[in-house]
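Entry for the shared binder. Reason: the reviewer on the internal report wants the predicted structure included alongside the sequence.
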Amino acid sequence: MEKLLKVIYRAIVPGYPRNLESACKGCTSILDVGCGGDSPIQRFSKKVYAVGIDAHGASITASQRKRIHARYYRMNILDVGKRFKEKSFDAVIASDVIEHTTKAQGRKLIAAMERIAKKKVIICTPNGFLKQDAYDHNPMQEHKSGWTVAEMRGQGYHITGVNGWRPLRSARGFMRFRPKYIWFLISELTQPFVKHHPEWAFQILCVKERS
């Protein structure tokens, strides 16, 4: 019964991986920039040709064990424009990545992603700056910049709010208050509102259609 209720609940209030899958609809090849060890595209990566790139060796190894992507490159994500040709993937995504770059680096990365993408560029990032230090022996986990709804709209992206009301979560998406399961449920219940009012969301899912 519990499993059935979860299925019904997720049909009504889709989680972020399902939102990402929907954003990738119509794309058969995906470049996953800064894929990490547990990319959210694992929900649907077997349906497409997915390539993962990351500079952190342990993350690449963890992702390989799960067989999330068909191919991997260990490399500096800022060099993505040098490695891959123009319009060589239907979709280029960066999920929880650009906040780990400086503003100037992030703009350079986004420009490269837009050149590589044939159909869509998809970026998920915290809504504004969210302080986060390095963890798991990975200095690249530190947050160096914040990106706003207005800023991403100004660059031509359609914005959807994800992961509930912003004040309920702290760094790494953890719930701020206890008991955590109660506040997680409250966060989930705010999702239908923030989806259409991303200024209030914890994270923003940004999608740009390429011509």
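Summary line for the report: The longest helix spans residues 180-196.
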